[in-house]
Each structure stands twice: as structure tokens, then as C-alpha cells.
Amino acid sequence: MPDDSAVTEQPSKKVTLLILSHNCLGALRRSIQAARNPSGDDTPEILVVDKGSRDGSAQVDSEIPEATVLRLPRNFGQTKALNIGVRTAAGEFVLILTPEFELSSDAVAAMRTYLEQHADTIAVAAVPVDESGHVYSPLRPLPDPGSLWRSWRSGSTLPLLELPAGAEVVPGEAFEAAPVMVRKQFIRGMNFFDEHYGEFGWEMELSWQIQRASRRLMVLTAVRALHHEDARPVLPPGAQAQLAADRGLGMATYLGKHSGVAAGIAFRFKASFIALGRALVALFHARDVGYHFSLLTSLVSGQRIDGSQSSI
Length: 312
Prior knowledge:
By secondary structure, this protein is of the alpha/beta class. The protein contains ten helices and eleven strands. 41% of the residues lie in helices and 20% in strands.
């Protein structure tokens, strides 16, 4: 395990731009170029954790010398990649984002300044906006068993909360799918992220830990993160099913940790039962059979994204 004490002795960077990347070279280039500040002492550390990409993403440092790339041999899931990146980061604040988001250097500076001026705030999130200019709220309530089950059964995302008009800063319980800047010391204090989560779940866990500590998670409404829908690679049905199963297993893990072991077991059992029914229907209609049986198998076995999947 890296020596964390050695990391904290490097005061030259206030912010580490931590990008978790997998097979999206064009979007990765765009994300780095947008956020870097090539002049002055305010340049963030740019740290890319590449999750076994096969498209050249792991060599982006040959094009952008300011970037440091940690090359993982396979995709071990977002949570493990995140822990590796945070342990390596030299910055006091870690800006976590994926290449589908484009965030300007001014936005990075605004997030850092807010954290410097508000000691009770652990994390600040940007507001996603799509290429047509539509703004999305990144805020939602902390999930409970009911909301997680409804989200899983319907195949929809967890409900988001509207941002109040005119507010520059909005407090919230939880965030989802947005760049977030976090105090590294807080992540270290929670002993990093629980790697029982695979690709999904770390955002829920971070939000819960902030609420438990009675600290604050804020959204800066003037800080916009441009979201590119085309940034994610197209995956075959089997890989999509494994990712969907990982999402369900992440929900079960979260419930098991924070609503009791029985709640986590019940969620996984019900999710597997629903998946079995849908797999039988798919078999009867000879439609999407591979997807549904891959989903069922992953749920029953508890197979989260951990590097063993060859198609991801």
C-alpha cells in the first residue's frame, strides 16, 4: 500500500484532477484540455487512472505531458480505480470526474475556492449541462430501500431534486453523475471507499459518509460541467448486462451496510427473482436472451465488476 505520509509531504498542488477513464481516448483528451491551467501556480495535478483501455487512452501522457497515467491491466471497477487514484493524489482537494464531462479551469478554481473558504463543507459538485444547453440537477435524497427498489425494478435512475431558481449554492444530501471535488483528508478518514462496491455505489457511500459526519455537500450552480453523451464506448449486450448487475449489487451492498444485512440480502434476492422472470420471458420470445441470462447469472453469483470480465 502506498505511504500516505509521503503523499501529504507534497504541498505543490492544491487540486488533483482525478479522471477515471476506460476506452474513450477522444473524450479523455477533451476533458484534460478543458480543465488544465497551463500557466501560473494554480495548475492542478492531472492524474488519469486508466482501467485497462485498449484504444490508446493509457498513452495520453505522451500527448499531454502534464498528465500522469496510472495504467491498470484490467477494468477492476470504478471504486478500486478511485481508491488507487486518491491514494496517489498529491492535492489537498481531489476533483473526481469521468471523461464524459468537460469542466473549465475557471470552474475548477471556483470549486477549490469554495472549499478553502468553507471548512464545514466536504464536497462541492458541479451542475451538468448537455450540448443543447439543458441543465440537470445532480442532487437527490439519500436513497432508502424503497427508492432503490423502485429504481432497480423500473430500470430508471434515482429521482433527482430540482435546483431552486436563483440560488448560487445549494446544500444537498446526495449527488449523482456529476464532477465533484472532495477533501482528500475526508476520504482518508473514512478509510477510502469500500471495495465491496464495483463500478457503482461509491457516490452513494460518499454522500452517506458526509451526512453521518454532519458535514456539508454543496452544489455550486454557476459551475457548469458540459456533458457529452457520445463519450462512453458502445458495449455488447453481455457487458451491458454485467454493468447493470453491478449497479444492482451496489444497491444491495449499500443497503446491507446502512439498512441492515437483511435488507441487502432481500434486495439481491428480489432482484434475482425479477431477473429470472425476465430471462424466461426473453427465452420464450427469443429476444435479448443473452443479456437477460448474463444479468441473472451475475446477480445470483454476486459478480461485480472486478477485472474478471473480458468484454468490459
